[in-house]
Specification:
The protein contains six helices and nine strands. By secondary structure, it is of the alpha/beta class. The chain folds into three domains: 67 residues, Histidine-containing Protein, Chain: A (2-Layer Sandwich), CATH 3.30.1340; 69 residues, Histidine-containing Protein, Chain: A (2-Layer Sandwich); 63 residues, GMP Synthetase, Chain A, domain 3. The protein has a three-stranded mixed β-sheet. A three-stranded mixed β-sheet has the order 4-5-6, covered by helices on one side. A three-stranded mixed β-sheet has the order 7-8-9, covered by helices on one side. A hairpin with a 2-residue loop joins strand 7 and strand 8. It is flat, with a radius of gyration of 19 Å.
């Protein structure tokens, strides 16, 4: 099991390696495998990249982000300009039904609302908007449509996990109630955790996924 000092150094090096991040402005603290990122970034996209970089490091049990987005002068945009840019980028995305997601902007903070068929559509919208100039933060209020025929959701998810998870049979416990899925058990690393969650989200009829999984030391 990696020590906190080892995890801290690895996260620092990963941030330095990530071209989209200025690691000099980010402080990394680690306690019991929980990583805290503190500091200032120049865009929401840089904040997103820093989070993903930390999550890639083996030994990271959880992540706390205290990064403030302080836009550089050349990145400043009015709320009207940001709103138009967000609406346009969503309109041009072939994976998202037209007018299914609404945009509201206040102080550079974008709130997305509406309803889509799949979680991947919501995630695609979030990522697209996060890369826009002038965005300081994003709130996700987009919901997933209920599939009237849930079917054998539990067996479908378990079959998907056998294909992607490293833990093999029985490593992940899947509990399904209506259109909500609760995942528990231990995974090897953060990337496997994301694979498991994505497999659950990719099952027709799932509107909510609760993650109670832990990362094995």
């Amino acid at each position: 099991m990696k020590t906190d000092a080892s995890v801290q150094q690895d996260v620092i090096e990963e941030l330095k390696w990530e071209n989209a991040v200025n690691a000099e402005n980010i402080c990394v603290e680690v306690k019991d495998g929980i990583v805290t990122l503190d500091g200032t970034v120049r865009s929401y996209a840089e904040k997103w990249s820093a989070e993903r970089a930390a999550q890639r490091v083996a030994g990271v049990q959880a992540l706390t982000v205290r990064l403030n987005v302080k836009l550089a002068d050349w990145n400043q945009r009015s709320d009207v300009v940001v709103a138009h840019a967000a609406q346009n980028v969503l309109k041009w995305m072939s994976t998202i039904p037209t007018d299914s997601i609404k945009v509201m902007v206040e102080g550079g903070w974008v709130t997305l609302s509406g309803e889509v068929d799949w979680d991947y559509q919501k995630q695609a919208a979030m990522q697209a908007v996060s890369n826009l100039v002038g965005v300081t933060g994003i709130s996700d209020q987009v919901t997933i449509k209920t599939n009237p025929v849930i079917g054998e959701v539990k067996s479908e998810i378990e079959a998907a996990l056998k294909r992607v998870a490293k833990t093999g049979d029985g490593g992940i416990i899947v509990d399904v109630t209506g259109d909500s899925v609760v995942l528990s058990g231990a995974v090897h690393d953060w990337s496997e955790r994301e694979l498991v969650k994505n497999s659950a989200w990719g099952t027709p009829g799932v509107r909510n996924v609760v993650d109670h999984m832990t990362i094995a030391g």
